[in-house]
Design a protein that fits this description.
mainly beta; 3-stranded parallel beta sheet; about 5% helix
């Protein structure tokens, strides 16, 4: 949720709650002037924007993505497989040079918190 923010950036996050009891994963209310919400992977319901402020929503993916994650039931939201609508589909943002594991993001970045690299895929096999 964002409330009374100014020039805040919410970038490259992964949120997974396909059965959200509130029917939303993200909610913006009240004043959020200059909020940028970009490259986020939202696995579940929609964004609820109740703010009257100008908010930039850019390149977010909202879909049920349980099968895109290594072990979502236990909180492991690392990407697996070839998710063609996630992998290399992010937009380059100067603030996002590393993923959640401090692995570098390349010239083509993934949507969400994790940057899938070959090492990630082979690690899942063991």
């Amino acid at each position: 949720m964002t409330v009374y923010t100014k020039d805040c950036k919410v970038l490259n996050n992964t949120i997974h709650d396909p059965d959200s009891r509130m029917g939303r994963l993200v909610r913006t209310v009240f004043t959020n002037d200059g909020l940028t919400f970009a490259n986020n992977l939202l696995s579940g319901p929609r964004i609820s924007n109740e703010s009257k402020s100008k908010i930039t929503f850019l390149n977010n993916l909202i879909k049920e993505a349980t099968n895109s994650f290594a072990d979502p039931e236990h909180g492991n939201l690392h990407l697996i497989g070839s998710q063609t609508n996630i992998i290399d589909k992010g937009i380059l943002l100067p603030e996002m040079v590393e993923d959640i594991d401090r692995e570098p993001r390349g010239a083509k970045i993934d949507i969400g918190a994790d940057e899938l690299i070959q090492q990630d895929q082979s690690a899942q096999a063991f």
